[in-house]
Design a protein that fits this description.
It contains 13 helices and eight strands. The protein is α/β, with parallel strands linked by helices. It has a single domain, classed as Rossmann fold (3-Layer(aba) Sandwich), CATH 3.40.50.720. Strand 5, helix 8 and strand 6 form a beta-alpha-beta unit.
Length: 324
């Protein structure tokens, strides 16, 4: 009870909660188990966006824990360089890669085919790929690129791998979201920003809100099959993506930003610990479940009707219905 009260005081102000201050305080407060203590030998883990930032930090720790990793990134050469690096650093030779752009649905389908062909089980699917773009671009299918790579592509990949995940139960699907989604309401009709009013930060926040909502819906609809769905946010971490997408923020907040390893801690913990299997569809920060709303305006717009609209649109955009 005392620890929960102290955590609530840390959580209330965003600066203390999202920066390294919150990370360090909660780590001491709750006496976290070291990630190095987890043994994931024999478990197969797919990590998208694994060649830099949070994804690279998570992949490195998962490799040290002994997991068989499939790293996903857009560049085959860069992917292979990371595979070679991790094998050298960790001694874990069960690391492979597949080149795929998560915004290109054809490549997502080929990624799923490779995973299914190469592995007879799948214990953890981690959706981490995605970046904040200052300019509007479209993915090959015509969907705005941020939405395609962070909403539609992950939805399709989960759908295509769902049977293998269920056969490997208890398994997990984990989504790296962002605290930026707190500022955005669920609005399926406005999920994609037009060229006229495009703002990269806002588009990113809308996509992240959709991710978190879909995570809850996946848990409601398919959690009974032995698959646990969780999303989380890393706090404010010092990554190449933040430097490129939010340079002023990165410069001003630099001394308080978390390291990539600190930002990825909860993601790895969700993949390794038994506690996350006790619930489904939660949103996490620093190894504790958190509210998905900080503002009454976003909560009031999170309606059953809008959720149904979002699910229907993503199914149509992905061209694949997990219910069939």
């Amino acid at each position: 009870m005392i620890r929960s009260i102290v955590d609530a005081f840390i959580e209330a102000p965003i600066v203390t909660s999202f920066t390294r201050l919150g990370y360090e305080a909660r780590k001491r407060l709750d006496g976290w188990t070291s990630l190095d203590d987890y043994d994931l030998t024999g478990r197969v883990v797919v990590v998208t966006g694994a060649t830099s930032g949070l994804g690279h930090a998570a992949a490195s720790q998962l490799a040290r824990c002994g997991a068989a990793l499939v790293l996903v990134g857009r560049s085959p050469d860069r992917n292979q360089a990371v595979v070679d690096q991790l094998i050298t650093e960790t001694g874990n030779e069960s690391i492979s890669h597949v080149a795929a752009d998560m915004g290109d649905l054809g490549e997502v389908r080929r990624l799923a085919d490779r995973v299914l062909a190469d592995h007879d089980r799948l214990d953890v699917l981690i959706h981490n790929a995605g970046a904040l773009s200052t300019e509007r671009n479209e993915a090959p299918g015509g969907v705005e690129a941020t939405v395609a790579s962070q909403v539609v592509g992950p939805f399709l990949l989960t759908t295509l791998l769902l049977e293998r995940l269920a056969d490997s139960a208890p398994s997990r699907v984990l989504t790296m979201s962002s605290g930026g989604m707190y500022a955005s309401s669920l609005a399926p009709s406005d999920l994609q920003m037009s060229a006229d009013d495009y703002n990269g930060t806002e588009q990113y926040a809308r996509a992240k809100r959709a991710q978190v909502t879909l995570n809850e819906m996946w848990a409601d609809r398919f959690g009974g099959r032995g698959v646990t769905f969780h999303s989380m946010h890393p706090g404010w971490a010092d990554t190449p993506g933040v430097d490129a997408g939010l340079p002023t923020f990165s410069k001003v907040m630099g001394p308080l930003l978390r390291t990539p390893e600190q930002g990825a801690d909860t993601l790895v913990w969700l993949a390794a610990d038994d506690l996350p299997l006790e619930t489904n569809g939660r949103f996490w920060l620093d190894r504790r479940p958190r509210s998905t709303h900080r503002l009454p305006t976003t909560k009031s717009k999170d309606t059953a009707e809008r959720r149904a609209q979002l699910w229907a649109w993503v199914v149509q955009s992905a061209g694949q219905d997990p219910a069939t």
